[in-house]
Amino acid sequence: MSPVALITGASRGIGAAIARSLADTHELLLGGRDAEALKALADSLPHARPWLVDITDHAALAEAVSSVDRLDVLVHSAGVTELGHVADSPPDLWRRTFDLNVFAVAELTRLLLPALHATRGHVVLINSGAGLRANPNWGAYAASKFALRAFGDALRAEEERDHGLRVTSVHPGRVDTDMQRDVRAQEGGEYEPQFYLEADSVGRAVAAAVTASPDAHLTEIVVRPRAH
Q1: Does residue 217 sit in helix, strand or coil?
Q2: Listing from the earlier edge strand, what are the strands of the sheet with 220-223?
Q3: Of 141, 146, 151, 196, catalytic
């Protein structure tokens, strides 16, 4: 019986790349809100099915989790990026950012911990370079990613010894995705994919952590584009 991985934000970008990287070794639950995109991806992979839910809706999330009876890997890839000066960032921007990037992650993990305990499973948090360093205009996003890193550190400290849970934070640099196009539009800069990581490179890094030998725990992975 193959291990089961649930990936949020799987309809595109890094989430879809992670799904492709795990497709040969795992049964996949593809989390997201875009039913058409999730179905298309599921149809292209050998053992995958959509897991359609808005993870910021905690009631809907609890209902969706009730259908997950076995889980080995939980990958949090869903996220949102809204840029702006702190002086121009109202509370709603901060709430939207933390709702998806932090609160939904914490609640989904909490709900699935019993299933992960049963398999001595693995939680993967797709973080960012912004979770290691905060730059101008990135205040809300960086704060959410610093919080996500702290969440991962706390979860690892609480769960590894008693339940064998592995927790990996992945910090990619800029990645060639639709989200990056939106980020560059917000920054008013040119989109230059030749200087960015490919999404599949991040997917392979996640696969390396998930398929590491039982004695190994890759706690933090930093992936940067190579200098040109």
Answers
A1: coil
A2: 48-52, 27-32, 4-7, 73-76, 122-126, 166-172, 220-223
A3: 141
